[in-house]
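Hey team,

Filing this mostly as a record. A colleague (T.K.) asked me to run one chain through the structure pipeline before their review meeting, and I want the input and output archived in the tracker in case anyone asks later how it was produced. No errors, nothing strange. Just documentation.

Input sequence:
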Amino acid sequence: MTSHSQRPIFLHGLWRSGSTFIWSEFRKNPNTYCYLEPLHHRFSHLTKKRVFRDTPSVNKGNNHPVMEQPYFFELIPLINFRGVKNHSSRLAFEKFFLNENDTYPALEKYISTLVDHGHKENKIPVLGFNRTPFRIAWLQKKFPSWNIHLDRHPFDIWCSYETHYQKKNPTFYVHWLRTIEKNQDHPVFSCLKDFITTRTTIEKLLRHPKKFYVSTIPDIPIKDRYLMVFVIWLGTILHALTYADDIFDINNHQKDYIAQKKQNILDNTGIEVDFTGLNTKSYDNALLSEDEKKQAEDLAIEIFPLDQFTAFFDKDKVLSRSEILDPEKFSYIEKLFAKNS
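Output structure:
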């Protein structure tokens, strides 16, 4: 059995949820071995040379903290000529929804590779995920671990995506559209079929996914782009409130909140971290009018397939943890439950 001091720490957060900052604070602790976004789709082609090209100073537009080492430095021992050991790009997009009793040997083998390497270095592995919002229960079952979900208001997440997109960086939208395509039969994604376009069978043969989705994003009305993010967030927070050991609500600015999170992590993992530098940007409503924002949120709540999502959340557990979340965000969940009562 994994002891308290060996138990890996898994961080879960949607892109642009403050996850890189939180991960980077864990990385500063000398007793941790930290992997950033270990399910990145490009890791099957990662080279040591490329590792040293990916740094916060190069990617200034992401507003990431200053780091002593490149983002993916810890992966270097697991790279031969090209590619991280046991990684496959399929892990990034396929089987995005996993129940605790599902089988996914390739993913289990890859995560084991990372965890085992951290342990060989006599450190606690910390994996900062961005592609596991519906895999927390599965990861808990396969790996005795401490799971922390990093939550940010869906409007702020979407504003970050949209701001990047308007600066000619469609990365985050493309990632989600590619993920939806690979999992389009799942109810959480299929409920979006009237609002977004995925590749047809013929287009899959003729057009590269990134190029296709970059070209089709302008065809998705801005309000529907927010709708997509809000639906994903709804499912994410229901799953996290049910299965995550702790929720780090980065929108919570109450006195002593950061200190409480620091103490809780220390008590449960033995790792001391300092989050006092957390300064997550909040956005005004310049991108959408208040009416458009509310319409998108109300529509997302209306179409969210709660009755087909029961395998991924427990209503009583969610309600019992209401005080963990910012009241405005929890009000969305209450509206969703009321609609389906």
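Quick notes for T.K.: The longest helix spans residues 222-243. The mean pLDDT is 93.
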